[in-house]
Amino acid sequence: MQSGSVQDALVITTERVDDIPLLIGVMQQMGLAQILDCPIPFHWKQRELSWGCTAVIWLAYIQVTPQEEKIEARKSTFGWKAYVTDVSKAQLPLKEAVLCYRKEYRVERIFNRLKSQLNIAPFFVKREDQVAGLTHLLTLGIRVLTLMEFVVRRSLQQEQVSLAGLHPENPKKTTDAPTAERILKAFSNVNLTLIHSGISLLRHLTPRSKLQKQILKRRGLDGGLYQNLEIKNSEILLTN
Predict the structure, then answer these.
(1) Cβ neighbours of 209 (radius 10 Å)
(2) Exposed (0-12), middle (13-18) or buried (19+): which is 141, by Cβ within 10 Å?
(3) Reported pTM
(4) What residue ranges do the domains of the chain occupy?
(5) pLDDT for 63-84, tens place per residue?
């Protein structure tokens, strides 16, 4: 005779968590959901999350979704860098043109992030107000990245310390000016494993590394942001 039943079968599910809690935590600190809820009326048939909370989840999702085709296309251009200017070589030699261009990286990074990180194009909308609204929403995503980067850098520079481990190709390399992209990449190995056994449910979250704990501390976020996932789902985390 066989003991047990189908209901007692062990089912294990692993979900990628990565940097989504970090992004949501940053947007919670900004009060982004409440800001977005102000101009958007709450429909009387609407249930669960507000429009602001929904937008926060969407912004977190599009910032961590890998774009394999774009990554491969970018790799194909490695080794080449083109500089174009309408100024003559006599007025602006190549060396000075490169140095001048490098000073403009802050503005260029905003547009680069809109195109690559937030995928502003192509637009799948028709009306001009929809284009404007989506553009404004995506620029809020840029603010999230910029604020996270600024706060971590300020914390490091105020204490005159550096972070190590943000460059997988050179683990010993340290920096006091990490980019938002490298900060988020540091959380790319966090998984939540759900173990179903009959009516029981066990959750196991990848232990946070020393680097991840340092980033959360520098960003002013509680380590419980990730620990809560072992007892809560993402929707409850958003509404608390």
Answers:
(1) 14
(2) buried
(3) 0.60
(4) 8-43+51-64+144-235
(5) 766 666 766 777 777 766 777 8
